[in-house]
Amino acid sequence: MKYVEEFRDSAKARALVKEIERLVAVIGPNGRPIHIMEVCGGHTHSIFRYGLEGMLPKSIELVHGPGCPVCVLPMGRVDDCVSIAQDEGVIFTTFGDAMRVPGSTKSLLQAKADGADVRMVYSPLDALAVARKNPDRQVVFFGLGFETTMPSTALTILQAEREGVENFSVFCNHITIVPTIKAILDSPDLRIDGFLGPGHVSMVIGTAPYAFISSFYKKPMVVAGFEPLDILQSIWMLLKQIAEGRCEIENQYARIVPDQGNDAALNAVNRVYELREFFEWRGLGSIDRSGVRLRKEYARFDAERKFDLPNVRIADPKSCQCGEVLKGVIKPWQCKVFGSACTPETPLGALMVSSEGACAAYYQYGGLKQSQAAE
Ligand code: SF4
Q1: Is the CB of 237 under 6 A from ligand 1?
Q2: What is the pLDDT of residue 299?
Q3: Element of type H or E holding 191
Q4: Which of 110, 115, 244, 277 lies 20 to 30 angstroms, CA to CA, from 100?
Q5: Is 131 close to ligand 1, i.e. is its CB under 6 Å away?
Q6: Would the keyword Metal-binding be found if you checked this record's keyword annotation (predicted)?
């Protein structure tokens, strides 16, 4: 398959690893590993799926960032979803991986088992189709994700407006990547030497919004694709910058990511949403201007305005260390409940739910064995 097989070539991967080892030797020891954060959960998944971490020199430590939107959804927002879904007049539609995220009392899947009409969809347009077919019910779509999914939700709202569909609304939990990276860079317990930038988000926003990372924080970033050679090449590009004393925003994924972003998607985003003053992230707390809501012109499509929500802030269970994993302070298998009280079948924290969650990736691709070996 074009653009897939050639990015999985094992001989080229070995050659890249050799080049990475050479650059690590040029950079030399500085008393601690080189910390590289992959911002995006899709990268985390690829890194474990293809065993890339094990191919790298020990002096490179990959830190798994907060770029899995399901993983950073706070319990209180899940409770809000359950509350909407339990309204008898509502059909609640959502992507499948959000159904198992634990709320304080139940997940959407459990709400469905208890009788709520919760339906899995593959896109917001599917949810709009459900609304057209059920004019006597309120159909709510759970809008979730970074800039990658924001445009499709916005375009669906614009479509609903054009068609005059009045029984469709969005529970908007879309979040935005730039303030999140800034919060990570401002975090005192993090020492990141460079970033693998998110490929899908950048397809929409381009590379220019990351300029502050190199100009102000003096950290390099390489926007990376998701195949094994993409990731290894991006790590090599980052190390090359460090070895040469450069600090730039580079684009390894240029076959997909235009530096200027996608105008049509950005226009839809700017038309429909505005920034919230702050948004709560699981494990990271409240981050200023890191989420969006619907503009008042689209209030009739806004589930937060249509429904009374509990809107309560719920702390994670005490045994849950998702926040420390999200900030890269501990590895997933170092969480006290990893593989025991928390597994993909019975997730205690959201990082064990989505395939892009670091804990689920570790569990699925051998991290459990690593954890047991370490004990
Ligand atoms: S093992 Fe479970 S509780 Fe612990 S950090 Fe991972 S998802 Fe959170």
Answers
A1: no
A2: 98
A3: none
A4: 277
A5: no
A6: yes
Q: Whose CA is nearest to atom 3 of ligand 1?
A: 320
Q: What is the mean pLDDT of residues 236-262?
A: 97
Concatenated DSSP letters of 105-149: S--HHHHHHTT--EEE-SSHHHHHHHHHH-TTSEEEEEEEESTTT
* pLDDT band at residue 370 under the 50/70/90 scheme: low
**Amino acid 354: pLDDT:** 82
* Cβ(322) – ligand 1 distance below 6 Å: yes
Of 15-19, 161-165, 329-333, the poorest mean pLDDT is in: 329-333
CA of 324 to the centre of ligand 1 (A): 9
Task: Output Rg (C-alpha) for the chain, integer angstroms.
Answer: 21
Question: 349 CB less than 6 Å from ligand 1?
Answer: yes
What pTM, to 2 d.p., does this model score? 0.90
Residue in the block written with tokens 């702390």: 315
Q: Which atom of ligand 1 is nearest to the CA of 330?
A: 5
DSSP state of 282: T
Percent of the chain with pLDDT over 90: 72
Measured from the Cβ of residue 257, the count of other Cβ atoms closer than 10 Å reads 25
Is residue 342 in contact with ligand 1, taking CB distance under 6 Å?
yes
Question: How far is ligand 1, taken at its centre, from the CA of residue 208, in Å?
Answer: 34
What domains can be seen in the chain, in order of their start residue?
A: 75-175+291-306 (3.40.50.11740), 322-374 (no CATH)
